Amino acid sequence: xxxxxxxxMSFVLLLTCSFTGCSGQNSRTFTALGKNIxxxxxxxxxxxxxxxxxxxxxxxxxxxxxxxxxxISRLNASGGEPFEVSDELLAVLKYAYRYAERSExxxxxxxxxxxxxxxxxxxxxxxxxxxxxxxxxxDYNNMVIDGFNVTLKxxxxxxxxxxxxxxxxxxxxxxLKQEAYFNAVLDFGGNIYTIGQxxxxxxxxxxxxxxxxxxxxxxxxxxxxxxxxxxxxxxKDNKLYHNIIYPETGMPVNNELESVTVVCTSAVExxxxxxxxxxxxxxRATSLANSxxxxxxxxxxxxxxxxxxxxxxxxxxxxxxxxxxE
Length: 326
What we know:
Layout (H helix, E strand, L loop, with lengths): L1 E5 L7 E2 L9 E8 L2 E8 L3 H18 L7 H6 L6 E2 L2 H16 L9 H4 L12 H8 L7 E4 L2 E4 L10 H16 L5 E5 L2 E5 L3 E7 L7 E7 L2 E7 L4 E4 L2 E4 L14 E8 L2 H14 L1 H10 L4 E6 L4 E3 L3 E3 L5 E3 L4
Parallel strand pairs: 1-10
Antiparallel strand pairs: 1-2, 3-4, 4-8, 5-7, 6-7, 8-9, 9-12, 10-11, 12-15, 13-14, 15-16, 16-17, 18-19
């Protein structure tokens, strides 16, 4: 039995259901993390939705680098001195270090000095000199974790990227499961987590299109997180500049990829690997994804072709689904 979701990754979810059991769905839409978020619980109530919204907002306040008063902003302003962090920030930073190691720096949380140079709102390209100077601070080993104390060495600045969102999604999913709600959909601006064993049809956005879909994914009890060059970008002098930055050059990644969607049971893991896989490129990313248990990836290249890793297959209706591990 399938529940159909018309989703354009990184856009707002529109939830419809193909069977009468969905009549008890309860949703809450609000703004946090700089995007529209919709939490839908089948047979849920306003109380649990209120708890979920409160959790998102509280974590957003701690982990938002655009808020000068947030905990992570105060860490970035600590000037290389040990800074005592909360349980939540410690957890996210440990995740960040883990995935930086596993991706050999393709995902690097210490890239903040570089990413802060890029002004996408005003379409400004930073100077070569400023990028070169900022790159000196980029090395995930510059983030030293000792108990609850975190020290940023050599001028390192933290930019967690989508990892923050992935962590918050996992925390909300954990809350719902703890409260015995096992049938729900979390839509964080088009990044999706489904709870339950029903198959949800997730349409993966055709990059740079107005409503087009490149592929359909059947998702159950897990996350589908996308990194795409079309999400935040500008064009200048016939050149595309987007916000997925190569840690070694400080410039937007320039390969044939336009989007990478990672499917797994953890949203924080999917967020880290979608970014890392985009940086690595399809061939290297495919090899890495196939070496990990429980990680699947869908690649869309600039010629419109769709590729996917070996744990994914097409069903009789041309929908991608995750195969059982061999």
